[in-house]
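Give me a protein, keeping tokens residue-aligned:
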Amino acid sequence: MREKEIERKLVVEVKKRGGIAPKWVSPGMAGVPDRLVLLPKGKIAFVELKAPGEEPRELQVSRHKFLRKLGFKVFVIDRKESIEKMLDEIDGKICPKKKVEKMLDEIDGKKKEGGDAK
């Protein structure tokens, strides 16, 4: 499977959810992700597409870190099967792992404060 096939699938799936996935070309700033994903209700993410098993280049990793530091979601997708889960996360249907861990820590802290009724 080639990167182009994964990219086409991404565009189709985003459209099904009422959004768009324009190609991002940024003259003067190499290494930016391939696509923007813009979903209803102002949800946005950046997507780097790769052929199966390929990794982002060092410059791309650096750009991804910068965008994440600004508070944006950045995904690297190398399989068609990953697209739906990614879109669910952008759409807020799946909590990112860090968010789940934080919620569990908060619950754990409340249990300790209130004590266990044993």
Notes: The domain at 3-114 is CATH 3.40.1350.10 (Trna Endonuclease; Chain: A, domain 1). The radius of gyration is 18 Å. Helices lie at 3-16, 58-69, 83-90, 97-114. The longest helix spans residues 97-114.
